[in-house]
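In response to reviewer comment 3 from the previous cycle, which asked for concrete evidence that the modeling workflow produces usable outputs, we include below a single protein chain processed end to end. The sequence was submitted unchanged, and the resulting structure tokens are shown without manual editing.
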Amino acid sequence: MGLTKKTILITGASGFIGSFLVEQAIKKQYCTIAGIRTASSKQFLQDPAIHFLELDFTSDISLDTALQECKLKYGQLDFVIHNAGVTKAVNNLLFEEVNFLNTQKLITALKRNELVPTKFIYISSLASFGPGIGTEPITAFHQKEPLTAYGRSKLQAEELLYQTPDFPFLIFNPTTVYGPREKDVLLLIKSIKKHIEVYIGTDRQLLSFLHVRDLCDAVFQGIESTAVNCNLLVSDCRIYTAKEFNTIVKRILHTKTISLILPVPVVRFAAILSELLGRLSGKVPVLNKERLKEFEAKNWGVDCKEIRNLGYLPQYSLEEGLKQTIYWYKAHGWIK
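The workflow returned the following structure tokens.
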């Protein structure tokens, strides 16, 4: 890194992945700026080395003011990791507004304020690619056919980057990311702890997983590499069946379960009902019609050859990563 610290801005810094990216940036001795909203929690952003920057994407003037303040205090941005976004929304239009339009606003503002970084990192999702065909793993050259509004909004942002001249970028497409502080995989673990494992249509669905710290390692390897203007798929470089995942969790928890393979039409009806109840309460249910499309797909296995060619080697096997994660959940009272 040399004697002069490189400066990095990380948006969505208060979220699950964002907070770990901030930790990794500090560990690697970057001058680390955490981009947050006014209402963002700083629960996992307690390191005194963190510099905070409030970003308001609803106002170009506010965004410009924040970036100019950033430039005045810290100088040119060497890198930007754009991690801010939504994975759940009551209204599908919110995906486009936050995941695509806010990305567009940030890129435009960086250019307008002469803060184009050496490399702009966009944290996308495997959802922008859509599932694999047959049993073949998804590759970086897979034709992108997202199933959901979430996946389409991520793809829109990716296409925008490819269409923006003189703006060096890398797009990361992680598979299911888990680890301490993550809440979706937590629900699966809680279900198994209650002695129930549920499958939709089949227990042979192909899946890939990624510990959050391995994702952070991959991102910073990409930042510090010569790679530019491409997609990088990331997983732990293995493919599992849904049954294998549940078996690992059961082994860690030392528990037995009742296995239920539910017919897709039954789950679809439950998703419609769950969505209706969610609208009444103003909350986004875990099971809804959009998410069901991804749950139904039989192949989310990943081939992450390109990131491995950059030297990426995952440090966590699924079993080791889940052990660490479950230990954290227990230590912090998220599961008993």
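The chain has a mean pLDDT of 93. We consider this sufficient to address the reviewer's concern, and the full set will be provided in the supplementary archive.
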